[in-house]
Amino acid sequence: MATLKFTQSSYNPLVTVYITTFNRLALLKRAIQSVKNQTYQNIELIIADDGSSDGTQEYLKGEAAISNLIAFCNEGDAKGACFGRNRAIEKANGIFITGLDDDDYFEPWRIESFVSSWQRLTAEGINYAGLFDSVVEHRKYAKVRCYETAKVSIRALRRANVVGNQVFTTAANLREINGFDELMPALQDWDTWIRLTQAKGDLLNINTFSYVQIHDHGGNRISEKPASKIRFAFERLQSKLAPMSFSEKAALMQTMYSYPQINNLFSEILLICLGGYFRKCAQIINRTYFKKNKQHN
Under a CB-based contact definition with an 8 Å cutoff, are residues 42 and 7 in contact? Predict the structure, then answer.
C-alpha cells in the first residue's frame, strides 16, 4: 500500500471526507471522482464499505494502493452506515471533516468554499459549530433547490432538519459528541446535527449549492425503509429531545408522516392538525383515500 502524505497548516489544513457504501459501485465511483475533482486538494478520503459483493472492495483496495484513499472493508454482516462513519471519524487525520453519500456528489468548489469561509470567520473572531451548504436535489421530474436557511440554531433543529445530510466541522467536534448514533435506523444526520449544535453552537450556510443529491437513480433510499424502522427512529429522536413542547411534537410528527409507508394513527393525525399543519393533514387524508381505492379496485 502506498504511503499517504498529507500537509497540515493553518492556510492549507487537511480535510477528511468520508463515504459509506454498500453495493453501489458505479455510483460510488462518481462520488469518489467528485472528491478528486475538488479545487482544494489537501483532502484525505476515507471509504467505509459495509460488506459489498459487487466488486466494490476489490476496486477500493486498488484505489488505496495508488491514491490518497483509505478503505475500510467490512467482510462480515452489514453493520450500518453509522458504524462506518464513526470508524472514519476515529481514524481521520484531518483537522476538518465532512461526509458524502455514495449516491450523491460534490461540485468542484465545495471543500475550498468551506475552508475559505471557516478561515475568514476565524479571522473575524466568529465561531460556529460547523458549516453546511444548500443542496440541489435531482428528483424524478425536476431539480429542486433546498436547505437554504441562512443560519441554524438548536431551536430550529428541534423542529426539523433544516440542514440536510452533511456538515463541515472539525473532527474534534464530532469525536466530542461521539459521532453518529449507531442504533438509529434513520434520521442519523438530523440527530447528529442536533447534538452538535447543542454542544458547540449554531451552523452557518455558505449558500453555494455545492452538494448534489440524487433521488432518481433507482436505488434504495430512506423513503423505502420499513415503517417500523422509521417509527423507531422518530421515537428514539423524540426521547432524546424530551421534554418537548406541543409545537415541537407536532412538527416532529408531521415530518414522520412525510414517509408514505407510515400507517395512520388518529391521535397522531389529530396532533398534526392541532399543531396547525393543515396541508399535511389534507395530504394524509388524500393519500389514505387513494390507498383504499387502489386496494378496492
Answer: yes
Question: Please, which residues have CB within 8 angstroms of residue 209's CB and are 6 or more apart in sequence?
Answer: 107, 133, 134, 135, 136, 145
Q: How far apart are the first and last CA of the chain?
A: 60
The pTM score is: 0.91
3-state SS assignment for residue 76:
coil
User: What is the rounded CA–CA span in Å between residue 19 and residue 120?
Assistant: 27
Each residue's pLDDT, cut to its tens digit, for the chain (297 residues) gives: 333 444 556 679 999 999 999 999 999 999 999 999 999 999 999 999 998 999 999 999 998 888 878 988 887 778 889 999 999 999 999 999 999 999 999 999 999 999 999 999 999 999 999 999 999 999 888 899 999 999 999 999 999 999 999 999 999 999 999 999 999 999 999 999 999 999 999 999 999 999 999 886 555 554 578 999 999 999 999 999 999 999 999 999 999 999 988 989 999 999 999 999 999 999 888 877 656 555 555
Dihedral (Cα; 200, 90, 209, 113), 10-degree rounding: 80
Helices (H) and strands (E) in the chain, counts: 11, 12
Question: How far is 19 from 17, CA to CA, in rounded Å?
Answer: 7
Residue 218 has φ and ψ, to the nearest 5°, of: 90, -5
Q: For residue 217, give every residue at least 6 positions away whose Cβ sits within 8 Å of its Cβ, in sequence order, or none.
A: 27, 103
Three-state DSSP class for 259?
A: coil
Centroid of chain to Cα 248: 22
CA–CA dist 107, 149 (Å, integer): 20
